[in-house]
Design a protein that fits this description.
Blueprint (H helix, E strand, L loop, with lengths): L1 E18 L5 E21 L3 E5 L11 H13 L4 E7 L10 H16 L6 H11 L3 H6 L2 E6 L3 E4 L7 E6 L6 H10 L8 H10 L2 H7 L1 E2 L2 H7 L2 H12 L3 E4 L6 E5 L2 H9 L7 E6 L5 E3 L1
Parallel strand pairs: 1-8, 3-4
Antiparallel strand pairs: 1-2, 1-12, 2-4, 2-5, 5-6, 7-10, 7-11, 9-10
Length: about 290
């Protein structure tokens, strides 16, 4: 038996710099692991893959990234062992926090150990990229600049355990729909990624807060006005800086520590959506 904690991610800065030859959007994004985690428990079995989850919002079959990660490992390595996986969801679904990607990354790391596969970090990263754009980061974690589809990772100087308030309005946002709408509209203001990276290297938290930016935010907000309402509420509650994460709808408010995040969260109207607070962390997966 092996247990894994899979950390959610947030985007401190997200930009689209062009289109890749295969038609995917070329990204430039500063990503950060946070201590909000899903929990996965793995039991070895002679054969087959079985997945159970406590959430009615996600499938428990081959459509799930956890199942696909296990299946990919079997196919690539020729491993004949099986696994029974229990997935306990804490990360909101379809919220821009990379929950499915985090679970897939944790599955790759855990089964590499449980099945004694001996795959290197580089080999796992290649497999992670085959599962989704955020999965490589969710395998690495910390504070990272990601480019390409999200698979080209440059570790940055780790940020301290800053507090973060997360507000997820009761919406299910389709990432594919947001990118289609982005392609249809004129691009908005691009975030200043080099300035964000420089601020992180200086550990200048005030500058990091001021430079939070997401090229997709105006697109999502045009379809879901709740995003703008949440941003204004977080600013009024005292967050240092506010930005939408990923394709949304979760909006994050940056705070100097977890205590301040708790106080900001307490000032928010719970009718805005799912309100919770956590902190930055320097890892993506914890195996035990």
């Amino acid at each position: 038996m092996l247990e894994a904690l899979a950390c959610a991610k947030i985007n401190l800065s997200l930009d689209i710099t062009g289109l890749l030859p295969d038609g995917y959007h070329e990204l430039e994004t500063v990503m950060q692991s946070i201590a909000l985690c899903d929990r996965l428990v793995f039991f070895s079995r002679p054969q087959g893959i079985e997945l159970q989850t406590d959430s009615t919002l996600i499938p428990a079959g081959p459509e799930n990234l956890v199942y696909r990660a296990a299946e990919l490992l079997q196919r690539v390595t020729g491993c004949r062992q099986g696994v029974h996986i229990f997935l306990f969801k804490n990360i909101p679904v379809a919220a821009g926090l990379g929950g499915g990607s985090a679970d897939a990354a944790a599955t790759l790391a855990a089964l590499n150990q449980l099945w004694f596969l001996g795959l290197s970090r580089e080999e796992l990263l290649v497999l992670a990229a085959r599962l989704g754009a955020d999965v490589p980061f969710c395998l690495e974690g910390g504070t990272v600049l990601a480019r390409g589809k999200g698979e080209l990772l440059t570790p940055l100087k780790p940020l301290p355990p800053l507090g973060v308030v997360l507000v997820t309005p009761p919406l299910a946002v389709s990432t594919a729909q947001i990118y289609r709408e982005y392609d249809r509209l004129l691009p908005g203001v691009h975030p200043d990624t080099p300035a964000m990276v420089a601020a992180i290297e200086r550990q200048d938290i005030t500058a990091v807060a001021a430079l939070l930016g997401n090229i997709l935010e105006p697109v999502t907000a045009s379809l879901y006005p709740q995003v703008s309402a949440v941003k204004e509420a977080l600013k009024a509650a005292g967050a240092l800086g506010v930005v939408m994460s990923g394709s949304g709808p979760t909006v994050l408010g940056l705070c100097r520590d977890e205590g301040e995040a708790r106080r900001v969260a307490g000032r928010l109207d719970p009718r805005l959506g799912h309100v919770f607070y956590t902190r930055f962390c320097s890892y993506a997966i914890h195996l035990q």
